[in-house]
Amino acid sequence: MDVLGVGVRFALYLDLMVMFGLAAFGLLSLRAAERAAVLPLRLAIVASGLLGAALSALGLAATAASMAGVPLSAIDRTSMVLLLTGTTAGAAWSIRMAALALVVLLSALASRRPGPGLSAAAAAGGVAVATLAWTGHGAMDEGAVGWLHLGADIAHLLAASVWFGALVGLSMLVMRRSDKVDAAHLTLSQRALDGFSTTGTVVVGVIVVTGLVNSWLLVGPNGLSMLSTSLYGRLLVAKVLMFVVMVGLASLNRFRLTPALGRALAGAGAVEAISALRRSLAVETACAVVVLAIVSWLGTLEPIASAM
């Protein structure tokens, strides 16, 4: 396994999904006044954008070193320039860096008009996330199949980012220090949790549909028998199992824990309800991180369909 390559991919996926996902969460689940007063969204997005640029630079160097078959310390400027100017991955990298610069600039200047600034930062962040599709298997096909694969990958990435960003944002709300949690904050947390339910249903639907498209292209019906015998297949099965656990936890949050918090706000038991939500969100977020680690590893392996 290319430990450096997988590690950089994992960190970049995690960072960019937090960046775009938090912006989407602020727009979809919080009111205008809450985006700055309740959560430090702007600071988190700016920090994620800067870190994303640094990780992208490291990832470019790691890719160039891998292609040249030399250690990272031995990579030269010529190899970097060839990768940037002669490959679609290089073009996607340049677009990502420009998008990240916009994210940082727009977020930093959004203090006076947080709504439009956050919307513009989310749009630029979405572009940055979409460029990750050119670093994976979605860019390996040509023609109509290639565009289908690439489009499914982009939609998959964006939907997953919205979900992951919501998990981070909701966790920031419900895991606030106890001495700063009052009735107003609990009401906001319950409303944000309940408000994301419709978006969450759409997100899960997009992930399922695009996941099926990608599985058809990367595994195919003839490759199902190799799911248990190949490393790629076992990792893919593990990813699906983690996704199923996440859907189960999201359903638990939506249909039991969030309504329980709403009922507790009118009476007693708010502490127990928020504690249950904290545990559920922590496990769901941990599962999401595991999924990202698996995806980062899968992107370096030959798909089953290509090996047949």
Descriptive notes:
With 308 residues, this protein is mainly alpha-helical. The protein folds into 2 domains: 135 residues, no CATH class; 166 residues. Helices cover 79% and strands 0% of the residues. The chain contains 11 helices and no strands. α1 runs antiparallel to α6. The radius of gyration is 20 Å and the shape is globular. The two termini are 21 Å apart. The model has no long low-confidence stretch (mean pLDDT 87).
Outline:
It is built from 11 helices and no strands. The protein has 308 residues and is mainly α.
User: What is the tally of beta strands?
Assistant: 0
What's the mean pLDDT score? Answer: 87
* Low-pLDDT segments, ≥5 res: none
N- to C-terminal distance: 21 Å
Q: Supply the number of structural domains.
A: 2
- The level of helicity is over 70%
Percent of residues in beta strands? Answer: under 5%
Query: Which structural class best describes the helix and strand composition?
Result: mainly alpha
Which sheet architecture does the biggest sheet show? none
Q: Determine the number of helices (DSSP H or I, runs of at least 4 residues).
A: 11
Assign an overall shape. globular
Q: Report Rg.
A: 20 Å
Provide the succession of SSEs.
Answer: HHHHHHHHHHH
